[in-house]
Amino acid sequence: MGIMHDVEKGFIRTDVPSFSAGDSLLVKVKIKEGDKERVQPFEGVVIKKRGSGPRAMFTVRKISYGVGVERIFPLNAPAVESITVLSRGKVRKSKIYYLRKLSGKAARIKEKRDSRP
Amino acid sequence: MIQGILGKKIGMTQIFSADGTVVPVTVIEAGGQVVQRKIKAKDGYDAVQLGFGVKKEKRVSKAMRGHFAKAGTPCFYRLVEVKCGADDDSKPGQAINCSGFVKAGDFVDVLGTSKGKGFMGSMRRHHFSGGAESHGSMHNRAPGSIGSSSDPSRVYKGMRMAGHMGFDKVTVQNLKVVEVKGEENILLVRGAVPGPINSVVLIKKALKKG
Fold first, then answer.
1. What is the pTM of this model?
2. CB A6 to CB B13 under 8 A?
3. Which residues contact B136 (CB under 8 A, 6 or more apart)?
4. What is the ipTM of this complex?
């Protein structure tokens, strides 16, 4: 896999923080409108991460005006301007799909208090 | 200028282009050496014989060993002849580099041997629709009628039936070269290339695009 690794290396971003399902993120995405470009923030909980190398994707869920909204981002895309981890959540699964069925107080995630690098 | 080079399919991945869109690419490692230069005056046509994949000398027949010894190259698994111009100055033993053959933005045709599928029925092999799966049907994946009765009293040649599928020579035309890494002799081509990983492919200049 040596050659493949070398080809993919240049497309894997090193400036994104490490995070996992349950964490709250603020993702800033560049959006092109005609010839103008603006940055759109998206804040929510990571419900899954999948893929490896340049193909890695993650899904962020938030409740917007009472409606659940999920957005899937490529982890290494140049369109993702920045990812900020707001809090670490304590969950026991890597894919927290059960969050979709919960609302209100039940949809809270306990915060992890230990510090991770 | 030679018309094609040999390479090894390394696999597929995806990369991000300058404007941020995802591009699916196949990574091909070019390589090999020139084994023979065929000259019109002597051989009747102008071509270059390329070798790819080094083989142990003891596994090569004596006749072929002599052929490689004359060229001063190691013994190769795969020998392919590609056309070239009369003024081509390729010498036996000369290493092939993809940067001299294509540059990013060019279009190429890639020839490979498709993955073997074994003995396949007519539904898989020729996309026949088959019969009904339920309602008491006993005609499920069978091909159906293969012709008329006493006239012509035979099955026409080329009738599509079950049989061996795959392991064919397949050409994919007009693939865009996304990136050329001359130092590592690596080629990134947009889209898929026939054959399994580690198979040898022939990369030619696109026939239908200049």
1. 0.86
2. no
3. none
4. 0.79
Would residue B182 count as lying in a domain?
no
State whether A7 and B22 contact (CB < 8 Å): no
Of A4, A55, A77, the CB nearest to B20: A77
Question: How far is it, in rounded angstroms, from Cα A22 to Cα A108?
Answer: 10
Q: Chain A contact for B35, CB < 8 A?
A: no
Q: At B205, which CATH number?
A: 2.40.30.10
- Domain residue limits at B25: 10-30+101-116+166-176+188-210
Nearest to A4 among B13, B20, B22 (CB): B13
Tens digits of residue pLDDT in B49-84:
999 999 999 999 999 999 999 999 999 999 999 999
Size of interface A-B (CB pairs under 8 A): 37
Work out the number of other CB atoms within 10 angstroms of the CB of residue B106. 16
**Residue B132 falls inside a structural domain:** yes
Q: With CB atoms and an 8 Å threshold, state whether A78 touches B20.
A: yes
Q: Is residue B139 part of a domain?
A: yes
Residue in chain A lying closest to B17 (CA): A78
Look up residue A29 and give its amino acid.
Answer: V
Relative to beta strand B200-205, strand B107-113 is antiparallel
- Nearest C-alpha neighbor of B23 from the set B136, B140, B167, B177: B177
| Spatial contact of A94 and A49, defined as CB atoms under 8 Å apart | yes
Asked if the Cβ–Cβ distance from A8 to B13 is below 8 Å, we say yes
Provide the number of structural domains found in chain B: 3
Q: Per-residue pLDDT tens for B176-198?
A: 999 999 889 999 999 999 999 99
Interface test with B, best of A4, A5, A6, A7 (most B CBs within 10 A): A7
